[in-house]
Specification:
Length: 253
């Protein structure tokens, strides 16, 4: 099973359907405010990334890693950064190109797999911005290693990801408001629910990674974790009990 290809096509269809909020580009008003210095971006669903996690943006070389959709990339570019958006889905990258054309911005868009950033040289970015997306790949340690390699010393990796707790509960029961512990971490959507269901629901395959791979993986790649926060999922039963997104600020010292 080629997960990358499966999820590329699944994300392209998410864009066509127009129902996934993470495929909807930002408005001209948000870009105008960003140009005037009034900007914020998310790594998770709701909370803005603390401004102090960013160095001054003017001229900052930022890699938006698995960050297509015409959202954070255009905001950061309008606020003065030199942005490259890297994503597996051509349709998601087109969203960024649409905003670039509409707003007269400059963004480099690159199609590829987040586990392989060989298209970029060592130490070619000041900051890697990696919103919640490593749930769409079954192995994340290569992602942390590659992010470390392409960052300059002193640069930061800002990442959003899922708390593995999220994947413990049966999804169908959760839709009906019942928290039924059923699954194991690491979690594979494909192994647990099967391809047939994935195809019927027409959505990308998801993977639940351990905290050892999420946090330990960043540290093993060489990063020092210097900040973190949690965020809640909108409209889910589990959100009444715990925040299921995490975000970290990791430094290549
Ligand atoms: C939830 S969206 C994240 C981007 C969005 N702008 C946001 O704010 O969160 C997840 C993105 O991950 C991308 N993606 C999935 N698998 C990938 C892979 N193996 N390599 C690179 N990008 C991938 C998808 O195409 C999608 O654009």
């Amino acid at each position: 099973m080629d997960i990358r290809s499966f999820n590329r096509e699944a994300w392209d269809r998410q864009v066509q359907s127009g129902k996934n909020p993470w495929t909807v580009p930002v408005s001209p008003e948000i870009i105008a405010r960003a140009r005037a210095g009034d900007w914020s971006v998310v790594l998770t669903e709701n909370k803005s990334v603390p401004r102090e996690w960013f160095p001054p943006l003017t001229g900052l070389k930022i890699l938006g890693l698995a960050c297509g959709g015409g959202q954070q990339g255009p905001i950061l570019a309008a606020a003065g950064a030199k942005v490259t958006i890297f994503d597996n889905s051509p349709a998601q990258l087109n969203r960024d190109r649409e905003v670039v054309q509409r707003e007269g911005l400059e963004i480099r868009t690159v199609e590829g797999d987040m586990r392989d950033l060989s298209v970029f040289g060592n130490e070619s970015f000041d900051l890697v911005f990696h919103p919640v997306s490593n749930l769409f790949i079954h192995e994340i340690r290569p992602v942390w290693k590659e992010a470390y390699r392409v960052l300059r010393h002193g640069g930061s990796l800002l990442s959003g990801f899922m708390n593995p707790l999220f994947y413990l509960f049966d999804w169908e029961d959760m839709d009906n408001g019942i928290l039924n512990v059923r699954n194991r971490i690491p979690f594979s959507d494909i192994e647990t629910y099967g391809m047939e269901r994935l195809q019927k629901e027409d959505r990308p395959a998801e993977f639940g990674h351990s905290l050892t791979d999420q946090l330990g993986g960043q540290m093993d790649a060489g990063f020092v974790i210097a900040g973190m926060y949690e965020d809640h999922h909108n409209g889910l039963k589990i959100s009444g009990h715990i925040e299921t997104y995490m975000a970290t600020r990791a430094i290549k010292i």
